[in-house]
Amino acid sequence: MPILSIMILLPVVAALVVATLPGGDEERAGRARVVALATTLIEFAAGIWLWANFDSSTAAFQFNEELPLFAPFLSWSLGIDGIALMLIELSVFLMPLCILASWTSVKKRVPEYMAAFLLMESLMIGTFAARDIFLFYLFFEGGLIPMFLIIGIWGGARRIYASYKFFLYTLLGSVVMLVAMLWMVGQAGTSDISVLSRTDFAPEAQFWLFLAFFASFAVKMPMWPVHTWLPDAHVEAPTAGSVILAGVLLKLGGYGFIRFSLPMFPDASAQLIWLVFGLSMVAVVYTSLVALVQHDMKKLIAYSSVAHMAFVTGGLFALNTQGLEGAMVMMLSHGLVSGALFLCVGVIYDRLHTREIGRYGGLADTMPKYALVLLFFTMASVGLPATSGFVAEFLVLLGLYQTSTWATFVLTTGIILGAAYMLWLYARVAYGKAAGDDTRAMPDLSVREIAILAPIVIVTLWMGIYPASFQQPMKPAIAAVVARLEGRQLATVPTDMSLSPALPAMMAPAHAAEAH
Amino acid sequence: MHPIVTSIAIAGPEVILTLGSLAALMLGTFSAPGRALAATSLFAIAILAVAGFALLDGPAGTALAFDGLYVADDFSAFLKVIIFTATAASVVLAQPWLNESRTGRFEYPVLMLLSALGMAVMVSANDLLSLYIGLELTALPSYVLAAFHRADNRSAEAGLKYFVLGALASGILLYGVTLVYGFAGSTQFDIIAGIVSGQTERSLGLLFGIVFIIAGMAFKVSAVPFHMWTPDVYEGAPTPVAAFFSAAPKAAALGLMARVLVVAFPGNVAADWQQIIIFIAIASMVLGAVAAVAQTNIKRLLAYSSIANIGFALVGLTPGSPAGVSALLFYTTVYVAMTLGSFLVVLQLRRPDGETVEQMADLAGLSKTQPKLAAALAIFMFSLAGIPPLLGFWPKFAVFQAAIAAGLVPLAIIGFIASVVAAFYYLRLIKIMYFDEPAVALASEGSAANGTMIAAAALFCSPIGMLAMSPLAAATARAAAALFPA
């Protein structure tokens, strides 16, 4: 059964159905919600089936499909390994929750909204399931269109600025990557990802190819200093849009690194770790500090996302098993936790229609259930043991320590800063006195909202207490990537504090550049 | 058999078009005044269809006619299919406008037939002289068409401007032809090629001749720096005429350019003209993208968009390789569908005062008032911007793939960055339609035929059109191979 094709095409069909439903506005909206929810639930079931039938003992692509539909440009070639599987699971898990979260809060153009989300789901699954580099690019870039419309039509006050910025920023990064892809395929004579990741490109070529891919993935990730589109896009996007953006779209950058940059350009990756570490270190400290002074809840969480994504890049470029596994768990964990945090913001935004932190307060008294859930996700974001965030941060730091102690040192301060801004946010929102009568009058979580948040709580705990069930399918695929990196010469970044003399270690990257 | 008989058989489509356009003129003159337009339009479409069928019936492989002035091969056949289809579509799409305006005269389809005849000669030209005849035969009816709205000063101005600049460009081209004849000793492409590849030293006079010929042709495809007429003519000419200008003549001129340069100037000289084409392509892509950002008039916007698109198409010509020419043909095909589709949507819309839409701001909130047309226009815009998975991405992909295979990586990078700038103004149209609130309630008052054509073009440009890529690529590869004798 071509399960992956079905998972990609079903939402497209559903989107067409939703967009062309008959009836009056109200009827169409109601039907659109039901169809969208049903489709995403079917997708979720298919995702579970995929996981149940997945062979966790091999790094090879599974559920392979190949159809030379679009020869000679690309082929409809699908297949997943453990890394792709887990990210698909994340997508199909978050999608029904997004639909539910927009059930009542989205009031205008409901059918179009649902259709855009369904298209989004199809494109995300396609991105992770593509086994042809150009098919990957097709899905990767195609996601821009529905997201552009979601931000631009259903967003907040500055939605038009945000949608343009999102679109053009990410497009500019990606076209450079496309040039590199065309060159690579011209050299290797195939666009099959699994063949390309076994191809050894000349180290000089790898350098440029790496930078071209880096231009795209760094923007998607997003890494400092090209992260500025993210806060704008998040603030203006509707709640569900933010969830998808933080939950899945940000993972495209990390997925790109682990699928393309690391195995295809191992020499360049090893030589350019100073670049990635440098940017990650700046990102963690800088964006954490920026997050501290935000007045807008969504903006705060957006900046915290940039900091968490810096952990992902740090873990990936540790270039060892722990680092890579940590980065993958971090992506999954961040997808759940930041998605949930955006949902939490959405809950109170629906009631008070403001994201201003100062307008809230005392929610622990007036909305105890909500305060409990928010506390849980705050702790998960900080990385409290027994939540998924702890597993992720611990593994990343463990792996990173073997490659660069300095980077580990700086990233660890990010955990402290993270605790500072998250706990302070929680204190301002949940404790103290309510900012006004309208704040005090807000009702607690409804059954629908509990139904949205409860599954995320469960999975976050599960991932925190028994991460092995999520790591197991990814292990062989990660081992294959690590095997590609084995024995590559690392850039001469001081890997041990005792080795570096009085010279500030931060200067070391400059030397590494000259050495290269 | 006498050579003239075999020649006529080979040039069947052109002969049919010639006789057909004369018959159409008679038909228009002698039918009742009220029915003349409808009758000639129908007749013109029938003639184009018959000429298309004559193509299918044409000789296989490459056939020379009229003592080497004319060639019929897969390349010309492919382009003629596009030209005839686009011309027929242009005749159909003008009908509502012709019926409404007071200038609804039967000469309109006849002029288009004559223009199509010129285009067919252009893509089949195997000699600098038949090339010139084809170009002029295309251009003269175009001047008249641009000024077709006689009562409108803007239309008359557009026609005059087009004529003066067009005549200048033709003069430049003709001067180039004389130079090439003087320094190579022939006007026939294959003979020039033989002489040129035999030369050991580079001839400066020949190079000048090539530059002048390229300049003349660059005017016809409206490539930078010979693009100045395009926005003004598109804006002034009646919208259906602008739609016609943006489609079929562009395809013909691109085909002509590819054939002249690839067939007549191979080997050493190729490096010379490749540099010129690289410059023209970059300049067109960048200027088309940057200048369009400031436009508020849809027709001007589409004019700059066509300049940028010509730049992208010319990238396919830069390597001078079969893959490149194949990509150029692919680009042309998709471009014609996208641009005709965009113009069709604009033509279909009417302001409350009955006028056609001119300003971009008029489209505000179109997604609420006319959701189907807005969706179609959004598809064309995303496709023109080259965002996958829409079909418009793949021709860009193909031309840059060919360029990169030839080692022209910087060209590809500049081109893709220009496409990001261009994406900005395509997005602006989408923003106006989808994000803004409706300003005026636009009505959809075109013909059902135009609606069908919009639907077909939108379907072709949507991801579903990707299914057509495989057969299309096979056809363009076959057509391109005709220019490169094994």
Structural commentary:
The complex is a heterodimer of chains A (516) and B (486). Chain A is mostly helical and 516 residues long. In chain A, 73% of the residues lie in helices and 3% in strands. In chain A, strands 1-2 form a two-stranded antiparallel sheet. In chain A, a hairpin with a 3-residue loop joins β1 and β2. The longest helix of chain A has 32 residues. The radius of gyration of chain A is 22 Å and the shape is globular. Chain B is mainly alpha-helical and 486 residues long. Chain B has one domain. In chain B, 74% of the residues lie in helices and 2% in strands. Chain B has 21 helices and four strands. In chain B, strands 1-2 form a two-stranded antiparallel ribbon. A two-stranded antiparallel sheet of chain B has the order 3-4. In chain B, β1 and β2 form a beta hairpin. In chain B, α3 packs parallel to α5 and α4 runs antiparallel to α12. The two termini of chain B are 29 Å apart. The relative contact order of chain B is 0.10. The chains are: A mainly alpha (516), B mainly alpha (486). At the A-B interface, β1, α5, α6 and α7 of A face α18, α19 and α21 of B.
SSE inventory with pairings:
The complex is a heterodimer of chains A (516) and B (486).
Chain A (H helix, E strand, L loop, with lengths): L2 H17 L5 H28 L9 E9 L3 E7 L1 H20 L8 H20 L3 H10 L1 H11 L4 H30 L4 H4 L6 H18 L8 H8 L2 H26 L1 H6 L1 H20 L4 H20 L4 H32 L10 H4 L1 H15 L5 H16 L1 H26 L6 H4 L6 H19 L2 H4 L3 H11 L22 H8 L1
Antiparallel strand pairs in A: 1-2
Chain B lengths: L2 H8 L1 H19 L5 H21 L6 E3 L4 E3 L1 H27 L6 H18 L3 H19 L6 H32 L4 H10 L5 H18 L7 H8 L2 H8 L1 H17 L3 H25 L5 H18 L6 H27 E2 L15 H4 L1 H15 L7 H13 L3 H26 L8 E2 L3 H14 L7 H13 L5
Helix pairs in contact in B: 2-3, 2-5, 3-4, 3-5, 4-5, 4-11, 4-12, 4-15, 4-21, 5-6, 5-12, 6-7, 6-12, 7-9, 7-10, 9-12, 9-13, 10-11, 10-14, 11-15, 12-15, 13-14, 13-19, 14-15, 14-18, 14-19, 15-17, 15-18, 15-20, 15-21, 17-19, 17-20, 18-19
